[in-house]
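Worked example 3 (structure in, sequence out).
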């Protein structure tokens, strides 16, 4: 065996040893994770893709035959590709059709629309027949004080034990983050919109 071959063999053996340690650590964590219950997940941050990630989780649940429901805040009444697809799969949607707050510029109207959207959301969060709930852009409703924080926390805490919930939106309130089991933050590095590229069907919505 040449010196070069020996060095390559040593590198391969060291790599295998490192990977074995990684595998053992992962296997230990998997073995220790025995609790099975509903998970509260928050996807926040200023980057693009939070709602997309939430809808991906809904699609995953539906693919496994689970029952899911979606509540959309501030998205408005325009066409939504995920809604078009998932409604065909039997996923119910509750949509706050007022659009973004800077479009309506009417706080009382927005609060009323939020209330009309949150009431069915509370019923969904209390329904043991729903396995997964996506509360898309809920964070804004709390940040703008359209929804009472304690009311939201109570609904989340009192939901059925097996029910998963995904909350999306920027600036998630600290109390919701503390309650959550999993929190992911999407950071923006660059965005096509800042370069003058408009939102496009099939990619942005």
């Amino acid at each position: 065996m040449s010196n070069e071959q020996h060095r390559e063999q040593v590198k391969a053996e060291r790599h295998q040893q490192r990977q074995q340690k990684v595998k053992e650590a992962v296997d230990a964590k998997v073995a220790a994770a025995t609790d099975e219950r509903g998970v509260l997940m928050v996807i926040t941050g200023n980057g693009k893709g939070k709602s997309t990630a939430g809808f991906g989780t809904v699609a995953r649940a539906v693919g496994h035959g689970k029952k899911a429901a979606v509540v959309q805040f501030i998205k408005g009444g325009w066409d939504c590709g995920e809604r078009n697809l998932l409604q065909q799969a039997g996923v119910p949607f509750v949509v706050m059709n007022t659009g973004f707050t800077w479009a309506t510029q009417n706080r009382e109207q927005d609060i009323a629309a939020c209330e009309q959207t949150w009431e069915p959301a509370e019923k969904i969060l209390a329904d043991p027949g729903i396995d997964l709930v996506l509360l898309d852009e809920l964070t804004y409703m709390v940040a703008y004080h359209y929804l009472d924080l304690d009311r939201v926390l109570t609904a989340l805490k009192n939901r059925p034990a097996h029910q998963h919930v995904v909350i999306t939106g920027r600036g998630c309130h600290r109390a919701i983050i503390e309650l959550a089991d999993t929190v992911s933050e999407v950071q923006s590095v660059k965005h096509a919109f800042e370069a003058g590229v408009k939102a496009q069907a099939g990619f942005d919505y």
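Notes: Helices lie at 3-32, 50-63, 81-88, 101-104, 107-125, 138-143, 149-157, 174-179. The first helix runs from residue 3 to 32.
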